[in-house]
Write a structure and sequence with these properties.
Elements (H helix, E strand, L loop, with lengths): L7 H22 L9 H30 L16
Keywords: Membrane, Transmembrane, Transmembrane helix
Length: 84
Amino acid sequence: MRRHDFEPGKLVVGLVLLGGCAAYLAAAHGSWHFPAYALLPVLAAGFCLAGLVSFLAFVVRRARARGADPDGPGGGAPSRGGTG
């Protein structure tokens, strides 16, 4: 099985949704009361945080890829296609 890249943005989204579910379960159980409209901005902020984390992971991954390839993109051996 092929390994996949670690995507921290998806981890953050999952944690945000689990937190929202836990808040609603606590409210349904009666152990915690909060206004229902208060959860929407918290979820939106969590999704914005997940987007930021995904963007930072993309930037780091791209920087590592450039560091690993000393010739840069398109460098290396000349192509053999065309009319050369």
